[in-house]
């Protein structure tokens, strides 16, 4: 095999090296230097160090726990800000990167545990938490404060009693008790009802500002549940105005043709309407003087529950639209301390 043949088989760079060897240089210094052809050793595949399966499982668990911890930190931070909190402030409080906070908050909004206001983009606690809290045993929950009041109201009125709070554009019943009378409403805790055709929902709508009520009417279709349901915005506005004036809301067979419901507002220690307290029963049993006595008992019970939530006795049933935000306080009183005083 000749050097020329070898050079053509080795490749261009090696061919140049062979030419330097074969062609003697006239430069004595260049001739003295030796040129080494790099050897080409075959590459070896090195298997990565195998990890113990327990280590991998531990890493996955650590990541999961970390994500849960961050999510709960965000939830707790939002819960401490009754007026809501923006992403920038939330990021500073929880000490996470802005994108991490955003994606975790976005997930919780999608799940319903947080809600984000459309205009201000501020985060608030989502109402579905109340539905979960209905089955928990923590003494500071609204459910545990409401249940004794509901039980006494049911004994006195003979009807089913309910306590509901707002959940988006609807209301969710978070506590209920059945009465001793026959033909009790077979409802359950956690059930969601439309706001426009239930007494409980009308109380919540009456608590909204004019701007909030307008936006509600713009985005919500007033779908009828019965032939008596209110389906026109002007008529619902008149109904809400009457609820604000009287402090009492009625459902005259609008959700169930055979059931009549009455509801009144319940306030918390900030002066805001925390929810609606109501009783339900057959229409034939909800009329005349007996009905007036039941409404009076309902109002007394709502006063007791509001007091349990820390509301002042002199608080008006409804305030002028727009004044609600101005009435908000920054009190940090907890429901636990309130309950201890009663």
Describe the structure.
The protein has a six-stranded antiparallel β-sheet, sandwiched between helices. It has a two-stranded antiparallel ribbon with strand order 1-2. The model is unreliable at 1-23, 30-34, 134-140 and 320-342 (pLDDT under 50). The termini are far apart. A hairpin with a 5-residue loop joins strand 7 (259-267) and strand 8 (273-282). With 342 residues, it is α+β, with helices and mostly antiparallel strands. It is 46% helix and 14% strand. It folds into three domains: 3-32, no CATH class; 59-125, Arc Repressor Mutant, subunit A; 130-340, GAF domain (Beta-Lactamase, 2-Layer Sandwich).
Neighbour order of strands in the largest sheet: 5-4-3-8-7-6
Give the integer mean of the pLDDT values.
Answer: 76
Helix content: 40-55%
Q: Radius of gyration in whole Å, from Cα?
A: 36 Å
Q: List the total number of helices.
A: 14
Total domain units: 3
**Main sheet: strands, sense, barrel:** 6 strands, antiparallel
Kindly identify the CATH topology of the largest domain: Beta-Lactamase
What CATH architecture label of the largest domain applies?
2-Layer Sandwich
For this structure, the quaternary state is single chain
Amino-to-carboxy terminus distance: 107 Å
Overall 3D shape: globular
Give the CATH superfamily of the largest domain: GAF domain
Which structural class fits the helix and strand makeup? alpha+beta
Task: Report low-confidence residues grouped into runs of 5 or more.
Answer: 1-23, 30-34, 134-140, 320-342
Q: Number of DSSP strands?
A: 8
């Amino acid at each position: 095999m000749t050097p020329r043949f070898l050079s053509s088989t080795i490749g261009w760079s090696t061919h140049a090296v062979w030419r330097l060897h074969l062609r003697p240089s006239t430069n004595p210094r260049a001739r003295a230097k030796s040129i080494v052809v790099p050897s080409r050793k075959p590459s070896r595949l090195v298997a990565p160090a195998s990890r113990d399966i327990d280590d991998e499982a531990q890493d996955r668990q650590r990541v999961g726990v970390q994500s849960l911890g961050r999510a709960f930190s965000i939830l707790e931070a939002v819960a401490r800000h009754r007026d809501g909190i923006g992403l920038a402030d939330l990021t500073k409080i929880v000490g996470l990167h802005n994108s991490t906070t955003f994606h975790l908050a976005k997930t919780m909004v999608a799940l319903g545990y947080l809600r984000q206001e459309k205009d201000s983009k501020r985060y608030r606690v989502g109402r579905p938490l109340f539905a979960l809290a209905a089955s928990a045993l923590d003494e500071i929950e609204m459910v545990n404060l409401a249940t004794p009041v509901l039980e006494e109201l049911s004994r006195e009125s003979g009807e089913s009693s309910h306590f509901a709070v707002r959940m988006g554009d609807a209301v969710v019943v978070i506590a209920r008790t059945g009465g001793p009378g026959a033909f009790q409403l077979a409802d359950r805790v956690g059930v969601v009802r439309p706001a426009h055709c239930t007494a409980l929902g009308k109380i919540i709508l009456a608590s909204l500002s004019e701007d909030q009520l307008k936006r509600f009417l713009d985005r919500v279709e007033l779908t009828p549940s019965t032939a008596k349901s209110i389906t026109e915005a002007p008529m619902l506005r008149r109904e809400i105005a009457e609820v604000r004036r009287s402090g009492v809301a009625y459902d005259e067979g609008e959700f169930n043709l055979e059931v009549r419901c009455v509801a009144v507002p319940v306030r918390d220690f900030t002066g805001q309407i925390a929810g609606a307290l109501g009783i339900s029963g057959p229409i034939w049993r909800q009329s005349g003087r007996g009905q007036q006595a039941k409404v009076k008992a309902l109002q007394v019970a709502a006063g007791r529950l509001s007091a349990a939530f820390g509301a002042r006795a002199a608080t008006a049933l409804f305030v002028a639209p727009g004044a609600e935000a101005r009435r908000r306080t920054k009190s940090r009183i907890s429901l636990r301390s309130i309950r201890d005083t009663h």
